[in-house]
From TrEMBL:
It comes from Terrimicrobium sacchariphilum. InterPro entries: AA/rel_permease1 (IPR002293), APC_superfamily (IPR050367), Rossmann-like_a/b/a_fold (IPR014729), UspA (IPR006016). Residues 415-531 form the UspA domain. Keywords: Cell membrane, Membrane, Transmembrane, Transmembrane helix. GO terms for molecular function: transmembrane transporter activity. The keyword S-adenosyl-L-methionine does not apply. One of its GO terms (cellular component) is plasma membrane. Gene3D superfamilies: Amino acid/polyamine transporter I (1.20.1740.10), HUPs (3.40.50.620). This is Universal stress protein family protein.
Length: 542
């Protein structure tokens, strides 16, 4: 909660560690890459287990599910969190019902006393640390949270809302997990072999057993099926969210110069292609390498615990962050505790250590390659020359303001609507704003603040379109002002730009999105028409 408060624009490991050192931030981000990779693979495997897919088909079906999520993310993460939000209430209901059905049967009879050996107890404690990933996810998304009441524009505060988000995670980890664990240990000992066999879909097994104990085998079977479907869908949404988050993380690192520039190349839907391929390929590689659920689970914790260690350590020793002595001391204690957990995981799970080392070696190799290319690119032009030919200086000097009317046209290419807009501007003696939006359909931990600054001359497609528009305007005698924006959603930017510029007419081309794209991302013209101020005339051409 303290990290969320002091980093209102995103308190994930990459943002927090960057203030202490670029290399440290990259290491933390790569640990998060390892975590998200295993999350996608593990969640997919568990989802298919909850659906009752036979064990021999789990690997193939999980691979297929990950590929399907990759296809959906090809169109952008517009609805990535929708399924998880829709399933939140059903999930809470079925978990509460399992606990309520188990309450009459809870017993301490089958529990073993605390082990005398501290090492055994410590290793067992380390084994239940997995649920911490929810806390890191919340810290990473503070930039997308609604600011607290009374926050000042430009200096948002999200401490109270972050507390509301973290509290359910804390309750789940401490109370929910304990009660479900107790319910599992309260089952008769003769069910132990079946429990080991059903460890991949344990909540469905608990629902079946306690449903049968209370209301008979018919109810137990139906209740178990419902629980299986709910958790399967929830876990599949976790696969989708992990892939979308991995795409966003790799893209953000590339924009910051910590990954090769090739990672910023976008498809027609604004999704970076290389990060998409990596985000789908890595979980599949891990699946094929491990080939069983237990091995997958063993890889999980080392990445997220390592990322949280880096985050906590950087915040603890960052004296510029506003924290009182108690908060800093508590953070230091937690940091030391999690370092011990990370070292224990490295010692007791050699496969996990090997996996995370592979991710770090490959990732740092790409980082070094990106730094080398970045250094070469920086030397190609002097700073003095760059300052003289800055695009914003040229555009401010060349933009006339004598026209009485303004027209805004949003284009995706040299389309008929652009020609129509020039004809109208010429006839009405109006200034023509040509808007090109580079849709960046990735999840940003830092919200709007993380969006890269836009310079249309550095974007090949935008440069070709807007440069041609300037030439056409010069030839026709129409004042033409190019506008280039990076944005996750075209419709909202078009409406905002039209209102900000105070245009009289907004011109759009007819939508050419395919059926799948419209289903996943919506229709831009329809969204704009529903939000545009009444004093702006909307013209849809084509």
């Amino acid at each position: 909660m303290v990290i969320c408060r002091v980093f209102p624009d995103g308190g994930g490991v990459y943002s927090a560690a960057k203030q202490q050192g670029r290399l440290l931030a990259v290491v933390g981000a790569l640990l998060l890459v390892a975590d998200l990779t295993v999350t996608a693979a593990l969640s997919g495997w568990a989802a298919l287990s909850y659906l009752g897919v036979p064990e021999k088909w789990i690997l193939v079906s999980t691979t297929g599910a990950i590929l399907l999520m990759g296809v959906l993310n090809f169109y952008g993460p517009r609805h990535s969190g929708s399924l998880a939000v829709a399933l939140a209430l059903p999930t809470v209901i079925v978990v509460v019902l399992i606990i309520l059905f188990a309450v009459p049967h809870l017993t301490f009879t089958h529990m073993e006393p605390l082990h005398d050996n501290f090492q055994h107890t410590w290793v067992s404690f380390v084994g239940v640390i997995l649920a911490l990933s929810g806390v890191e996810a919340i810290a990473n998304l503070t930039g997308t949270m609604k600011p607290d009441r009374g926050s000042v524009i430009g200096h948002p505060q999200v401490g109270r809302n972050a507390f509301k988000a973290i509290l359910p995670v804390a309750i789940e980890v401490s109370l929910g997990t304990a009660l479900l664990g107790w319910a599992m240990l309260s089952l008769p000992k003769e069910l132990a072999p079946e429990m080991i066999k059903r460890k991949e879909d344990m909540l469905r097994f608990l629902a079946e057993q306690y449903g049968t104990m209370n209301f008979g085998p018919g109810f137990g079977h139906i209740f178990g099926f419902i629980v299986g479907v709910v958790f399967a869908l929830l876990l599949l949404s976790a696969v989708n969210t992990a892939i979308a988050a991995l795409i966003g993380l790799l893209f953000m690192m590339s924009r910051e110069g910590d990954m090769p520039r090739a990672f910023t190349k976008l498809n027609s839907h604004g999704v970076p292609l290389a990060p998409l391929g990596i985000s789908v390929g890595l979980p599949i590689i891990v699946l094929l390498a491990t080939d069983n659920f237990e091995a997958l689970a063993g890889l999980y914790a080392i990445g997220v615990v390592g990322a949280i260690c880096v985050n906590l350590g950087c915040c603890t020793f960052n004296r510029h962050l506003k924290m009182n002595v108690l908060e800093r001391g508590l953070m230091l204690f937690t940091f030391v505790l999690l370092v011990a957990v990370e070292l224990t995981l490295a010692k007791t799970k050699p496969d996990a250590l090997f996996f995370v080392i592979c991710v770090l070696v490959i990732g740092l190799g790409l980082w070094a390659y990106a730094q080398r290319l970045s250094g070469t690119r920086t030397l190609t032009v002097s700073k003095e020359f760059a300052d003289i030919v800055r695009p914003d200086v040229v555009e401010k000097m060349s933009a006339p303001v004598s026209e009485t009317q303004k027209i805004l046209v949003s284009v995706r290419g040299l389309t008929p609507v652009l020609r129509f807009a020039f004809e109208e501007a010429q006839m009405r003696n109006a200034a023509l704003y040509v808007l090109y939006i580079r849709e960046i359909a990735v999840l940003y931990g830092g919200g709007a603040a993380a969006l890269p600054k836009a310079d249309w001359k550095n974007d090949p497609e935008a440069s070709a379109i807007l440069g041609t528009a300037l030439q056409i305007g010069k030839h026709r005698g129409v004042t033409t002002i190019p506008v280039f924006v990076n944005a996750p959603n075209a419709a909202s930017i078009i409406v905002d730009m039209a209102a900000t510029l105070g245009v009289d007419y907004l011109m759009l081309g007819a939508s050419h999105r395919g059926s799948m794209s419209k289903l996943l991302r919506g229709n831009v013209a329809t969204e704009v028409a529903g939000s545009l101020p009444d004093n702006i005339q909307l013209v849809i051409y084509g």
